[in-house]
Structure formats: structure tokens, C-alpha cells
Amino acid sequence: MYLCRLCYTLDDRLWFPNPESSLFLNLTIEEENLFEENKLEIPSEEELYKNLTPDDEMIAQGGDLSVERLLLAYDYGIFPWFPFRSRQIYWCAPVRRFVIFPAEIHVSHSMRTLMNKNIYRVTFNTAFDQVIKNCSTVEGRVDEEQAWLGDEMIESYTKLHDLGRAQSVEVWRDDELVGGLYGVTSGSGFIGESMFSLEPNTSKLALISLAKKMQQEGGTLIDCQYYTPHLESMGGRYISYKEYVTILWGAEAYKTEAECPYVGFRD
């Protein structure tokens, strides 16, 4: 017996499957007979989730990068991965979400020392275009075979930014942009997409500044999308998909944006 995710092909009629209903058990005939003969119960949903691997996070492929589809995706905890050289859009919805709660952001002693020196200045939403382009090109990222942040993604997220749903954090040394990050707001959360550093620790400074800003404005979580030891060291941890959605949209789930306490950075 093994657990898989159903992978749907999207079109104009099917925009997204339900991330929770896209799980299924794939049993051989022998395994089905074994279950029946021994009166075994199928493992619980929680037990099944523990067996999922990163390969099981993809729930769909195809579709487009329209603003409407992107907004619907993010509001259901789904995000795109578009290795543009392959011309195929994939949609991911991890059942375990790696997040940072703003109040739990870890600031190391070395980072506190750096911040106290006041070398850098942090702004919000003043240079989105520069941030996303740096995220695309820094350290030759755009030249990698599986590069995903190409012109089409940049165009789509710039449109989200124009609507106030994609936002950026900038780190400056004098008038030079030296670090930053961008992401998408959904409900009371911020879904991080990418970050960059042109000087040591400037992306960390952007993330810490984001967490502090969200604490001030009622933001509940930062979705890191994927686990890294670096993000874990800054306070990242796993929560379930159900907990994730409940935190973003409240106990009733999927509240309207007008009812949410946090919809982005305010001046």
C-alpha cells in the first residue's frame, strides 16, 4: 500500500481540486484482499499525512498564471511552480505547512548586533519591481535548468502587486538595494515567494522586519512553503493544512477579505 496525490490537469472549467480531497490510497488487489481477510482499517488521515513526501505535494498541472487563478490558489493554500523552460505550470499544496509565526521569529545575537548598528534601512512596498527582479537573477538563478521566476511569473506577480496582494520588503544600504523578499497576502497570512541578499544577512533582516511588521498589524503567519534548516533556525515549524487554513481565515474558514484583520502592509 502506498499513498499518492491525485494530480489534475487544469483548464477553463476545472480551476483547482480541493487540496484535502486529492489524497487517495492506491491498493493492489492482493493488498485489498489482505485488508479484508484481516479486517484491517485503512490508516487515519493523520497517519497517512505522515507518509507523504515532497513528491506528493503537487495536486495539479496546467492552467494559467492569471490574477484570478493565482488569487484563488493562494486563498486555498495552493501555489504555483513554473519551470519556464519546460512550459508546464505545476500547482503545489503541501499537507504539512512549514510556517513562521511572527511572534516566534528567532533573532540571533549576531543579528541583533547587526541591527543595532543601524547600517541598513528597511522599507515596505517601495521597490517591488527591483526586489522581484533581483530574486530572479541573483547568483545566476534564472540560468538554472529548473528556474521558475521568469518573465511570465514576474508579470503575473507585478499585477498582483498592483492590486495590493503581492508585497515586498526592501533592505537598503544608503540608496542601494542590498536585500529583500516578496510574497502574497492571503487572509491574515503572508505567503513568502522568494528572497535575496547582495550583502550577508540582508534577507534575514527583511524576514525579521516582516515578522515585526505583521505583529504590529495583526498578521498571523508567514508561509515559508518549504522547509530549510535556515528557516527552521529562525523559528519555522510544521502545522497541518487544516490548522493553516483555520489560522488564515478563522474558525469558519474562508472568510471574505474584508472580514480579515490583516490584508497587507499599511503605511
Radius of gyration: 20 Å
The string of secondary-structure elements, in order, is EEEHHEHEEEHEHHEEEHEHEH
In whole angstroms, how far apart are the ends?
53 Å
Strand order of the largest sheet: 8-9-10-11-12-7-13
Strand content: 15-25%
Report the sheet with the most strands, covering strand number, pairing sense and barrel closure.
Answer: 7 strands, mixed
How would you describe the shape?
Answer: globular
In short:
By secondary structure, the protein is of the alpha+beta class. It is built from nine helices and 13 strands.
Describe this structure in words.
The chain has two domains: 2-96, 2-Layer Sandwich (Alpha-Beta Plaits); 99-259, Leucyl/phenylalanyl-tRNA-protein transferase, C-terminal domain (Aminopeptidase, 3-Layer(aba) Sandwich), CATH 3.40.630. The protein has a seven-stranded mixed beta sheet, sandwiched between helices. The chain contains nine helices and 13 strands. Residues 23-28 and 254-267 have low confidence and may be disordered. It is α+β, with helices and mostly antiparallel strands and 267 residues long. The longest helix is centred in the last third of the chain and has 16 residues, at 202-217. It starts with a strand and ends in an 18-residue tail after the last helix. A hairpin with a 2-residue loop joins β10 and β11. The chain has helices spanning 29-37, 45-50, 67-75, 109-116, 128-137, 151-162, 202-217, 229-233, 241-249, and strands at residues 2-5, 8-10, 23-26, 58-62, 79-81, 90-92, 96-100, 121-124, 166-173, 176-186, 189-197, 221-223, 237-240. Helices cover 31% and strands 25% of the residues. The relative contact order is 0.14.
